[in-house]
Specification:
The chain has 200 residues and is α/β, with parallel strands linked by helices. The chain is built from four helices and eight strands. A six-stranded parallel β-sheet has the order 5-2-1-6-7-8. Helix 3 packs parallel to helix 4.
């Protein structure tokens, strides 16, 4: 890998912005800053949460389960979310103000049995999305992450990227967090321990 750089724009979709099914406070406020950052990179990759209806990570798929409760899946603990980013829905579309003329879109979470926070791996931590191979084929060694949500999909993507040997930066001012039961503090600790550079 070289010092070529890529910007990873994580899940800036309608359902994660104000008014969406799983809205992150201020999620739309980061869009202009992300757009302004794009020209500084050799490659731009967007990730898109892309769930079939009835996905196993939806609380509605577990009778009696409340949204944001946690259940045990074959691959480990899983937060049960409100239905969101259903394939083909308005909520799954990118925020209308976001520049989407990047090099690649990684769609994740389309396996009905496994959720996928990371842009590199599904939540079983072994099933790859193909992003690692794509970045290596482009000679990219440095990645910067922005998007939603800082404590889930950005965090998991950043930690996986560092584990795979990339030089990873998370630009915090262009991310927003859910902060579910201390998840933001845990994410910051995990990213720091993985060697991710956190910029203000």
């Amino acid at each position: 890998m070289t010092d070529r750089s890529a910007l990873l724009i994580i899940d800036v979709q309608n359902d994660f912005c104000p008014g969406g099914a799983l809205a992150v406070a201020g999620g739309d406020a980061i869009v202009p800053g992300i757009n302004a950052l794009i020209p500084a990179f050799d490659a731009v990759i967007l990730s898109q949460d892309w769930h079939p209806a009835g996905h196993s990570s939806f609380a509605s798929s577990h009778p009696g389960a409340a949204p944001f409760s946690v259940t045990e899946m074959p691959y480990g603990p899983q937060v049960l979310w409100p239905d969101h980013c259903v394939i083909g829905s308005h909520g799954a579309e990118f925020h209308p103000g976001l520049r989407t003329d990047g090099d690649m879109i990684i769609r994740k979470g389309f396996n009905p049995a496994i959720d996928s926070y990371s842009a590199f791996f599904e939540n079983d931590h072994t099933t790859e999305t193909g992003l690692d191979g794509y970045l290596r084929s482009r000679g990219i060694g440095r990645i910067t992450l922005v998007g939603l949500a800082l404590d889930f999909c950005v965090n998991y993507s950043a930690v996986d990227g560092a584990r795979l040997g990339f030089d990873v930066t998370v630009q915090q001012d262009l991310c927003r967090a859910i902060d579910l039961d201390g998840s933001l503090h845990a994410a910051m600790s995990a990213m720091g321990a993985a060697g991710v550079m956190l910029t203000a």
